[in-house]
Design goal:
Blueprint (H helix, E strand, L loop, with lengths): L15 H20 L5 H23 L4 E4 L13 E9 L1 H5 L7 E8 L2 E9 L4 E4 L15 E5 L5 H10 L2 E5 L2 H9 L5 E4 L5 H13 L3 E3 L18 E4 L1 H14 L6
Length: 262
């Protein structure tokens, strides 16, 4: 069956929050369809990356033709550096988890950078049937845990974060994609995500936009601001956490430094 994206809400014509939400949700629906086509392993990963990227590029060209796009799966057109509006997208964040049916810890990221900062974003969790966005930010409840919880990679538990967890009296919660980890803080699944093991702008732009809109603390690992639409799109580290944990996490990093984190 050929996927036919539905018509966006009328408000998407002028509201970037609505458009980002619709784009992420629609790409997520396409990925669920790809997941049901019987592919496995590398074939499924490649098919998912390609299908979501092509769909997002087509829809952005149709609905925001004057804007630049930076996609993990596309060629980086440096013309974006002269544009006042740049969509930063990760068509499939957590490709490994996507290929391991029925895992649900993978996502679609769609963010808009405008005139120096992120202004809109959405993170779709297709397997959960949810899209978290800046137009209607998640309401972060008080922590339900007796001690802090830190989201970490399920395959590369880092020594640095183990040391941080010991300092905070925290427990580690393994999970997949970067977007899932960031949004886990907004969902009260965790209380912090601390990463210093290497990422790119598309890994964090949309999740950070949503986290900020939800009132969470976001920064580089040293506490400095996260900056997007840079010439070099490598953005290797970040902190996303409940505001009450921020000072302790940044202070720990400044005192001890990092070797690796995930």
């Amino acid at each position: 069956m050929t996927f036919e994206p539905r018509t966006p809400p009328a408000a998407a014509a002028t509201d970037d929050h609505v458009l980002a939400t619709w784009l992420a949700t629609t790409a997520g629906a396409r990925l669920l369809e790809v997941r049901g086509e019987g592919l496995e392993g590398r074939e499924l990963k490649d098919a998912g990356d390609r299908a979501a990227h092509e769909l997002l590029m087509s829809l952005l060209a149709e609905h925001r033709p004057g804007d630049a796009v930076l996609s993990e799966e596309g060629k980086d057109d440096k013309a974006r550096l002269r544009s006042s509006r740049v969509w930063i997208v990760d068509p499939l964040d957590g490709t490994r988890e996507f290929s391991e049916v029925p895992r649900d810890d993978w996502a679609v990221h769609v963010a808009l950078w405008q005139d120096g900062d992120l202004v809109a974003g959405a993170v779709a969790h297709p397997a959960l049937g949810e899209t978290f966005n800046t137009g209607q930010p998640p309401v972060v409840p008080p922590s339900s845990a007796a001690r802090p919880r830190i989201a970490v990679s399920r395959s590369r538990p880092p020594e640095f974060v183990h040391a941080l967890a010991e300092e905070l009296g925290a427990e580690l919660v393994p999970m997949g994609s970067a977007g899932v980890k960031v949004i886990s803080v907004a969902r009260d699944v965790t209380d912090a995500y601390v990463h210093a093991g290497g990422q790119y702008e598309w890994d964090s732009a949309a999740p950070v936009a949503v986290a900020r809109a939800a009132g969470l603390f976001t920064s580089r690992i040293d506490g400095s601001p996260l900056e997007y639409n840079q010439d070099d799109v490598y953005l290797p580290d970040l902190i996303v956490c409940r505001p009450e944990l921020a000072d302790r996490i940044v202070a720990f990093v400044k005192e001890h430094g990092v070797t690796s984190a995930g």
